[in-house]
Amino acid sequence: IREAYRNHGVRIFSLDSLEELEKIELGTDGADDLTLCVRIKVASEFAEISLASKFGVDVDDSIELLQRARQMADSLGICFHVGSQAMTPLAFVHALERVRTAIVSASVTVDIVNVGGGFPSIYPDLEPVSLNHYFTAIDRTFEDLPISYSAELWCEPGRALSAEYSSLIVKVERRRGNELYINDGAYGTLFDAAHIGWRFPVRQIGGDAANEAITGFSFYGPTCDDMDFMAGPFNLPDGIRAGDYIEIGMLGAYGSAMRTRFNGYGSSEEYDVTDEPMASLYVGDNLDRSDRENVVSFPSV
After folding, report:
1. 114 pLDDT higher than 70
2. Are residues 125 and 220 in the same domain?
3. pLDDT tens, 269-296?
4. Residues 41 and 148 occupy one common structural domain
5. DSSP code string of 154-198
6. Claim to verify: residue 158 and residue 191 sit in the same structural domain
7. 3-class secondary-structure state, position 28
8. By Cβ atoms counted within 10 A, which residue in 12, 32, 60, 253 is the most buried?
9. What is the value of pTM for the model shown?
10. Is 254 buried (19+), middle (13-18) or exposed (0-12) by CB count in 10 A?
11. Count of CB atoms within 10 A of residue 275's CB?
12. Residue 288 has what pLDDT?
């Protein structure tokens, strides 16, 4: 906290306990230019990956923390995270209703409401409604909160912003039945596919597979570990074999961030490409053009 404040100009901190508030006060020498966002605990029942356990104060226990943070903060905020890949706007509506309860119980003036992340992307079997529905639901609920007339609405888009930008090209080293041994895996870019069971879109590169039957495959990565396994199923042409190449799409969240060099693996080459992502919420049939005012930018076509 001290280094962030003194050396890097950080003035915004989130916290979920009185102990953390005291750390911030000590580390900033009681500074009067802080924005403090109290993180409250909300459910992750509508999300594919829960973020409800590690951080957040229960609403019933937030009264004193909000009141003391209000006294110390130049700007007071409330933040939360509904979980990663929230599949319905109701996740944010329910969370904002908990924000309402916290504000009313503590009787404080709130300057910022930060709805965090959780905005979804599109994957096989995970096709959310247009993000416009999320923005509309959040905006409507936010406007009805008992907050300062000049209060700001913040969000922290992660997956929805980054998922589409990256694909991974892997080589099939061996086929055993419906199992493909490939040269990336659980310790590399495919962490989520292995440890969370995430299904990414896949396609065979090259070959004449247009009329081939499709088979659901699982993947083994390059290390010796049984846990270096991605169950899938990943749907590919039935004739795929050693030496073929596969594109695995939608790895912008968070393939590169998870990658390690365990057992000496992990070397790769990077290329900038201009083709469209393997799936998208922003182009084609998935783009809801009914309300373009809520989105910063759209494709020109």
Report:
1. yes
2. no
3. 889 988 889 989 887 666 665 554 544 4
4. yes
5. E----HHHHGGG--EEEEEEEEETTEEEES--TTTTTHHHHHT-P
6. no
7. coil
8. 253
9. 0.88
10. middle
11. 6
12. 62
